[in-house]
Amino acid sequence: MNDPFSLIAEYYDEVMEKVDYEEWARYVKTLLSMAPLKPIRRILDLASGTGNLSIRLKNYGYEVFGLDYSLGMLKVAKKKLSDKPLAIPLVSADFRHIPFKPSLFDAVISTFDSLNNILDPAEMIDTFKQIRGVLRNGGPFIFDLNTSWSFKTEWYNLTRVEETANTISIWKSRYINGIVYLYFTLFVRIDKGDLYRKINTVFRERGYSPDEVKKYLKQAGFSKVHCYDHFTLSPGRTKSSRVTYLAY
Q1: Burial level of 88, CB count in 10 A (0-12/13-18/19+)?
Q2: Which domain holds residue 167?
Q3: Judgement on whether residues 102 and 186 belong to the same structural domain of the protein
Q4: Residue 60: which of 35, 82, 42, 34 has the closest Cα?
Q5: Are residues 34 and 143 in the same domain?
Q6: At 187, is the secondary structure helix, strand, or coil?
Q7: Which helix (H) or strand (E) holds 180?
Q8: Which end of the chain offers a freer environment for a tag, N or C, measured as fewer CB atoms within 10 Å?
């Protein structure tokens, strides 16, 4: 797995400043409460990034472990934690190869369509099996994915420009044979002046339909699978843009 996130890690939080992580944490907490396993104490946050969600879940009282492949993103997360009285172990690893012993966690989460980075359905099934293995019996796996319908219709040939105090970001997407290629150009203001540094990188994601995901989860050993339109408790549909899953 390549690491395009390290190129932009230092600026990631500013680029994503409009993301409401408080709402996301509340939503995850609601879904955790719907799982049969009680109580839920220890959570693994897969693709934890710069730690925004991990920190908020820790503040709710959970014991949180963060795992991410990007050393740059983990470096930013560690810097945040050094300024807070919070203990969150951070592990550098590919989420397709989870380095934890069986039944260690009460819950596993993965947010912000991180698992869309898995391009091979067989690898997705294997990842689900590994996640099932590190969960206690009845422990929930909560994650969200962009749908294949969304990629085919909403992300097809998309161009988006966003600006913050110190950055200008340009997203251009192309949909080719089931894969979305996100060509990302970031301009970063130098010393708060009028000159900018330019960074180019490419992200690749595969969309998955709810029916595909439910089938893969069942193959991985999860007996119950619920899917929701993102940030709601309404059923997820084929034509949902993003679907959140609760499996156990």
Answers
A1: buried
A2: 150-206
A3: no
A4: 42
A5: yes
A6: strand
A7: strand 179-189
A8: N
